[in-house]
Amino acid sequence: QLQLVESGGGLVQPGGSLRLSCAASGFNLGDYAIGWFRQAPGKEREGISCVSRYGARTDYSDSVLGRFTISRDNAKNAVYLQMNSLKAEDTAVYYCAADVDVRTVCSMKTRSYDYWGQGTQVTVSS
């Protein structure tokens, strides 16, 4: 069974940092491009970052560029999202997703992705 599991969410003060992890079971995460998405209450799910299969290419939304960093460790079958300088507007449920289409280099479009984790809550509040 193919499964993605996010972890590392929690409550953090504005300006703080968190590191999210995305772990895979049942498949080799290194075979796929991986995206990070988030969904705040009442809003659509938005793509915020992606990384290509071997990590050569990354991309970020304007809302997180310069604050968040995506990375992957294929040996550990995991992808990470380091989030710094967190703001209240970063509060959301964060999801990782895998794109099985080998033609996809790096996409932040939800429709590109085939497997999703259950999400981890990130709350930025004082």
Task: Based on the model shown, name its key terms.
7-stranded mixed β-sheet; 4-stranded antiparallel β-sheet; mainly beta
What would the principal axes of the Cα set say about the shape?
A: globular
Q: Stretches where pLDDT falls below 50 for ≥5 residues?
A: none
What portion of residues is helical? under 10%
C-alpha Rg (nearest Å): 13 Å
The biggest beta sheet is recorded as: 7 strands, mixed
Q: What is the SS-derived class?
A: mainly beta
Mean pLDDT: 95
Measured between the Cα atoms of the first and last residue, the distance is 40 Å
Describe this structure in words.
The chain has 126 residues and is mostly beta strands. Helices cover 0% and strands 47% of the residues. It has strands at 3-7, 10-12, 18-25, 33-39, 46-51, 58-60, 68-73, 78-83, 92-99, 115-116, 120-124. The strands form 2 sheets. Strands 2, 4, 5, 6, 9, 10 and 11 form a 7-stranded mixed beta sheet that branches. A 4-stranded antiparallel beta sheet has the order 1-3-8-7, with no helix packed on it. A hairpin with a 6-residue loop joins β4 and β5. The chain is globular. The mean pLDDT is 95.
SSE diagram, text form:
Blueprint: E1 3-7, E2 10-12, E3 18-25, E4 33-39, E5 46-51, E6 58-60, E7 68-73, E8 78-83, E9 92-99, E10 115-116, E11 120-124
Parallel strand pairs: 2-11
Antiparallel strand pairs: 1-3, 3-8, 4-5, 4-9, 5-6, 7-8, 9-10, 9-11
